Amino acid sequence: MGCKPMQSDGFFTSADRYEEFRTYDQDFGSRIEQYLELANQELLENFEQKKYLMIREKQPPHVIHPRKDLSLRGIIRSAHEAGNLTTEQKNSYLEKCDDLYSIWEKQWRTVRKKAKHLGIEH
Questions:
Q1: Burial 34-63 (b: 16+ CB within 10 A, else e)
Q2: CA–CA dist 66, 114 (Å, integer)
């Protein structure tokens, strides 16, 4: 019986999916749009993977299923202050962050409702 070679993707590399964007030095607007898209994708994937854990566990929301909009809001505001985004871009991106928050909040409402239905207190 031989040893199966380990794949290096994911094991030896950083788990931070934003890493490649941090070195992207072109248009800040397109970079933030990529951040927003990735955050939305991660929010949906994390919910699907941890939905039942979220129902049963009594850990704080930021531990099990964290918000994705908070750090993005900081990036957007600092990019605007540095002059890398227009006011219109900033406002548009912050609205998209509001959408991310709405998704996150809806996911937690769904989980809390299910937990209550099962008799599990949160």
A1: ebbebbbeebeebbeeeeeebbebeeebee
A2: 19
Rounded to a whole number of angstroms, the CA Rg of the chain reads 18
pTM of the predicted structure, to 2 decimals: 0.74
Q: Answer for the pair 42, 68: CB distance below 8 angstroms, yes or no.
A: yes
List the chain pLDDT tens, one digit each, 122 residues: 444 444 434 333 445 555 555 544 557 889 999 999 999 999 999 999 999 889 888 888 888 999 999 999 999 999 999 999 999 999 999 999 999 999 999 999 999 999 888 888 76
